[in-house]
Each structure stands twice: as C-alpha cells, then as structure tokens.
Design the sequence.
C-alpha cells in the first residue's frame, strides 16, 4: 500500500510539472488580438483556432491524470489506518480533564501588599 502511494505521488508531481511547462510554452488566444484591429493578421477577435493542437491536447490529458491521481491520493490517505507516531496532536484525549478546585483567597492586610525594597 505504501508503494502505491509513493507511485501515485510521483505520477501527480510529474504530471503537475509537465502541465506547468506545457502551459507556459503555449501561445495564448488573446495574443493575436492586436492584429485583428489594424494589421489584419487574424480572422476575428477571439475566433476559433480550428481543432486543438498537440500542446493543448497533451495539457488536457495531463490535467486529467493530475486530477485522477489527486482523487486517488485523497481516497487512500483517508482510508488507511492511523498509526500512532507519538504526537500529542494526532491522539485526542480519551478522558475529560479533571476539574481543579480553586485555591482559597485569603484577605491580606494592606501592609503585606506593599513590596519590600
């Protein structure tokens, strides 16, 4: 089970890094907007670019792999038994705290409250 989690985590990290790299390499749709207003390089303002190219399809596949691996890691992370690591934060207290009786307050004289030099 631990090996499966390691493999899923590696797949998620590789797909995330590859997706970031592909998104940064791609050419945006709005980049040719200036050409539509004067130089006539584009057919329409936000016109269809035809079918999706290789980079956009690869990005979509990597996004699907990333979300699938995220869901699998979340499922396996919540389904595994909790092993005690000795942390106080992981193990809630099993018993209610014992109430402590307040100390009696004695009336002190005015002279006892003055600090000595």
Sequence:
């Amino acid at each position: 089970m631990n090996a499966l989690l390691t493999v899923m985590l590696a797949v998620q990290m590789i797909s995330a890094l590859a997706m970031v790299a592909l998104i940064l390499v791609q050419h945006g749709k709005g980049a040719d907007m200036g050409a539509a207003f004067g130089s006539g390089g584009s057919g329409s303002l936000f016109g269809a670019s035809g079918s999706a190219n290789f980079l956009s399809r690869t990005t979509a596949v990597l996004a699907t792999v990333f979300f699938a691996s995220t869901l699998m890691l979340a499922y396996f992370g919540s389904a595994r038994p909790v092993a005690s690591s000795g942390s106080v934060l992981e193990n809630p207290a099993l018993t209610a705290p014992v109430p402590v009786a307040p100390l009696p307050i004695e009336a002190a004289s005015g002279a006892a409250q003055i600090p000595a030099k």
About this structure: Residues 71 and 115 are 65 Å apart (CA to CA). The chain has a mean pLDDT of 75. Residues 1-28+53-80 form one domain.
